[in-house]
Amino acid sequence: xKKLFEQVYGRKLNSFEETxxxxxxxxxxxxxxxxxxxxxxxxxxxxxxxxxxxxIKTLKKQLALYQNAIKEDVVYGFDKISSFQRRSMxxxxxxxxxxxxxxxxxxxxxxxxxxxxxxxxxxxxxxxCSQLLFLLFLYENDSYxxxxxxxxxHVLPMAISRASKQLHEKGLIEENKQGTEIVMNVSVxxxxxxxxxxxxxxxxxxxxxxxxSDARVxxxxxxxxEFSLSRRSDMGYPKYAEYALYKDLSFFKGLVxxxxxxxxxxxxxxxxxxxxxxxxxxxxxxxxPVSLMCTFADTTDERIHKCLEDVKEEIWNxxxx
Length: 321
Description:
The chain is α/β, with parallel strands linked by helices. It has three domains: about 1-110, Trna Endonuclease, Chain: A, domain 1; about 120-200, Winged helix-like DNA-binding domain superfamily/Winged helix DNA-binding domain (Arc Repressor Mutant, subunit A), CATH 1.10.10; about 205-315, no CATH class. It is built from eleven helices and twelve strands.
């Protein structure tokens, strides 16, 4: 944690020291506290010693308790956070620092900072269209021309060219010229082997989420998140109904979300904005199994991971032609 502040502020970091406070056990348990002074401004970092799946509503409530007890600005500290967690805290004005180079300190005028430690090496992960193209091979045919793939995925041929280049570089497909066409073929025909070869490259398709009150979601909109998981496993019904929609849909133009903490839970629907169109591989009102699993990439909840094992078994028979 100290190294992060040294990278960002250098000599402007006046002091950084671990300290202790007289707090209720539930506010102390699993945390270390650091008193930090930068440019004469002092604040306290409540650092989570173990990374857990957090509830933003709880974080906001406890933040007020910390600040009332300590009488100084308080910031949450994490070893690592996902892009979804980062976005959630920024949207809810919860200050934080993370050792993987993320920072939101509104009282310091620092909204977001990337340091030497990158959150992800982007080039090692699929681009959204690359993931979509890979799913086409995983769920459907072993071979496509670039034009056929573009039509099936409703994207431009240029996007398929970039996606196929990435899959080829990762050894997932082979390309052969037949006449004037470039034909793409999977490099591994066994679906389980193909999946295992690609799994480290998957991205979370969720760009952001929005909560809507009494939303009129189209009947074709596929279920996602814990809502979908509850329908495909023995997991209990979640707090909100949840659906996935492509981020570029006109549905989102001028749309204003609601604060779920200030509305009745039964009236709220959680909408995931996806980086690619979830409808392309949805079936029976559910998003496809690989994409669903990817939406939980950052969770440490053992219940969810157990249920995802059931979802994984759907892959081998999903939408096969």
